[in-house]
Amino acid sequence: MAAFLARRIIQMAFVALLVAFATFFLLYLAPGGPIQQLKAEQNTTRRLNTDAVQLVMKRYDLDIDILPRFTRWLIGQPRGPLTIGGQEYFGATKIGCLEEGQVEMQYPDGHVELSNCKTPVYLNDLKGRAASNGILALDFGLSQQILRDRPVSDLISSRIGNTLLLMGISTFLAIFIGVPIGILSAVKQYSRFDYFMTTLSFFTSGMPTLFLGLMGVIFFSLTLQNAGLPYLPPNQAEAARDTVVPLFGNIVAGSLGDRIWHLVMPVTVLTLVNLAGWSRFVRSSMLEVLRQDYVRTARSKGLNERMVILKHALRNSLIPFVTLLANVLPTLFAGAIITETIFSWPGMGKLFIGALQASDYPVAMAFVMISTFLTLIGFLLTDVLYTMVDPRIRLS
Amino acid sequence: MAIKAADALSSAKAQANPYKAEGQWTIVFRRFRKHRLAMISSFLIVFFLLMALMVPLIAPFERDAINADMRYSPLMTPDTVDGRIHILGTDHLGRDFFTRLLYGARVSLTIALLVSSGSALIGMTIGSVAGFYRGIVDTILMRVLEFMATVPDFPILLVLAAVLNSDPKLLPIPPFVASLVSNLMLINSKEARSVIVVVFVLTLFGWTGMARLMRGMVLSIREQDFISAVRSLGANDLRLILRHVIPNSLPPIIVAFTLSLAGALVSETALSFLGLGVTDPTPTWGNMLDFTARNILVAPWATLIPGIPVVLCSLAFNFIGDGLRDALDPRLKK
Fold first, then answer.
1. H or E element, residue A330
2. CB under 8 Å to B233, separation ≥6 — which residues?
């Protein structure tokens, strides 16, 4: 077990590092970000001088090559020349370029050849420059666009509550409703109920979340509101001001009732979408168990059907349930990107999309890294829990 | 029509020679026809594909023709300029919805087809080589599959799409590919870029499932007796794989392919909806949904116009896949 854990953790670290580097590299190549925005904002009255650009570049490490930039983001190093016993080494190593060289050649296809770097950046220049402690120390750096110069962790902590609320409730409901449906479908296989549920789950799983969400907005918000009936809010997590809703009366902004009122639709959509998966999973696992010999033994020794199902079949059919944990953990954090976008739900998924659209790369990186980490933890937990609930399985 | 003709033909054949066994695909087709929803879905998909094929003949308006006087006009409104009828009304810029829906069908369905066939092709090749030869290819494939399974693919896919869309230099596209895609989808070659990015990204994340499936099938088939029999007859590996292994592993691949069409269609819709897929002047069902959803307060029902085809196609592909699963291998039926 210990050896297995050690090996898995090393593997996980490797995967996480690979994802981190690949994503970082991609975003390094991408244009956009603060400089592009500054350039887009300049006009006749607001000119942009080189000093200002360089200041921003230094602020966000945009002048440094990918490898040192990556390690600074990952572990907060290097922060200057290597110092051993008061002696500084490698201070003159070039690690980036603050100002590109002159254009030497410009080809018709847009390819440009530059002369050597005009203002190179050396390791010495990093001395005294502000740096994050690295994401390994859970310092995700500063947001560049969405909340400029505020720590990414502020953004995350302001959003994560909403996502946990939404995902927690809908996951709970999906399990709470989906599992009994799955059991009943399996116990009464090929009954009318089973056919109905199988068809229904087929429809909801084939139905894009996008469409389901938009339909919800059209019917339950717009149509009902126009008809003067009690309606549900189409977006946001709480109202900006008090609202009067027919039958419900006055809903005070930010009150518990307001929050619940806003939760109903996104939770319903997510639950409907996830319900199918859970009930199908339980159904097939239950059918598998019902075919086992020990179920026949239980029946043949005269137990009533209720006992057979609840005590012998159900408990064993829930063993594979553990595998689903690997998926639940990261989604609790990451939220449902599309659902959150449709309902403008101020959660993590919406934040991520916003970060990608606004080229706020530290935020996007933080999101990807935390999701990766949680996914990996989910897999590890699954494996470990599996040995606990099913003693036949040994980790080696 | 074609089905009835084929049916008549096969029954005529059966009468002519009552001892001649039914062909494998005839049996499959006979079983498939029993799945009523799958049959309806097939007709639906054929209908959509035909519409998409004949876009230039059907489309009543220019794809990007803007009429600023007619923003969000309702169904069946005559145009203010020449009185032609906007069957499904107009969008936020006064462009004809019906025309854009047709062109969108062309783009969206072609993207789905390209992604699914690309994933199937890559997955089948790598999967069969890995399963047949084992060794280093298999080890690498398994590592890659493990890696892909343990990372959150949707966020990374979104990052990739966002980055590739933002800078044309990052994914150099050979001109012939661009012109091929632009001819396939009736778009100009500048617009082809974002379409190719979507196809590339979705294929990159789509092939692993196919490869895993193929590998599993090949692993079980290569151990069977008929393979040793064919080998002892002197068949080389290429012939073995192409003539015996792949045809025998096709049934689950065909089912997976059909289901992946639904997946690719919905993914394209989702990407474009999030603004990271195909961008505006090029119509796809996804970005039409994006714009109608943004103006949902102005014209709520407009969302249905691109929404319904997406749902219908997604469900139809799922039903066809289900029907094929039943038809190809009754033992797989749950």
1. helix A325-334
2. none
Whether residue A15 and residue B266 make contact (CB cut-off 8 A), yes or no, is no
Among chain A residues, the shortest Cα distance to B314 is held by A206
Residue with tokens 């996980």: A12
A215 contact residues in B (CB cutoff 8 A): 307
Q: Does A140 touch chain B (CB under 8 A)?
A: no
What b/e sequence results for B127-160 when a residue is b if at least 16 CB atoms lie within 10 Å of its CB, and e otherwise? bbbbbbeeeebbeebeeebeebebbbbbbbbbbb
What span, in angstroms and rounded, lies between the C-alpha atoms of A38 and A36?
A: 5
One digit per residue, the tens of pLDDT, for chain A of length 396 reads 788 888 888 988 888 898 888 888 888 777 766 777 777 777 777 777 777 778 888 778 787 888 888 888 888 777 777 777 777 777 777 777 777 777 777 777 767 777 777 777 777 777 777 777 878 888 888 888 788 778 888 888 988 888 999 999 999 998 899 888 988 888 888 889 888 888 888 888 778 888 888 888 888 888 888 888 888 888 777 777 777 777 777 777 777 888 888 888 999 988 988 888 888 888 888 888 888 898 899 889 988 888 888 888 888 888 877 777 777 888 888 778 888 888 888 889 889 998 888 888 889 889 998 888 888 888 888 888 888 777 777 765
Residues forming CATH 1.10.3720.10 domain(s) in chain A: 152-389
**Tokens, residue B58:** 């059907």
Between CA A279 and CA A293 the distance in angstroms is: 24
Q: Is this complex's ipTM strictly greater than 0.90?
A: no
DSSP per-residue codes, A226-293:
HTTS----SS-SS-SS-EEETTTEEE-TTSHHHHHHHHHHHHHHHHHHHHHHHHHHHHHHHHHHHTSH
Q: Are B159 and A364 in contact (CB under 8 A)?
A: yes
A70, A73, A81, A131, B42 from A77: Cα distances, Å: 9, 8, 10, 8, 59
Among residues B69, B70, B135, the alpha carbon closest in space to that of B97 is found at B70
* DSSP assignment string, B116-137: HHHHHHHHHHHHHHHHHH-HHH
Residue tagged 């100002």 (tokens): A99
Distance between CA B322 and CA A202 in Å, rounded? 10
Plot region of B135 (φ>0 → left; ψ -120 to 50 → alpha; else → beta): left
Q: Around Cβ A318, how many Cβ atoms within 10 Å?
A: 16
Q: Please count the other Cβ atoms lying within 10 Å of the Cβ belonging to residue A359.
A: 22
- With an 8 Å Cβ cutoff, are A30 and B296 in contact? no
Q: Provide the Cα torsion A286, A289, A294, A298; round to 10°.
A: 20
Class of domain A152-389: mainly alpha
Let me know if A378 is exposed, middle or buried by CB neighbors in 10 A (0-12, 13-18, 19+).
buried
CA torsion A327-A329-A331-A335 (nearest 10°) is 170
Cis check: omega of the bond before A362, within 30 degrees of 0 = no
Asked if B300 and A380 count as a contact pair (C-beta separation under 8 A), the reply is no
**Share in percent of chain A as helix, strand, coil (round to 5):** 65, 10, 30
What the block records as the tokens of B101 is 């829906």
Give the residue from chain B lying closest to A328, CA to CA. B152
Alpha carbons B122 and A252: distance in angstroms, whole number: 56
User: What's at A10, amino acid-wise?
Assistant: I
Say how many C-beta atoms besides its own lie within 10 A of residue B311's C-beta.
22
> With an 8 Å Cβ cutoff, are B152 and A330 in contact?
yes
Q: Are A353 and B158 a contacting pair at CB < 8 A?
A: yes
Quickly list DSSP for B198-233: HHHHHHHHHHHHHHHHHHHHHHHHTTSHHHHHHHHT
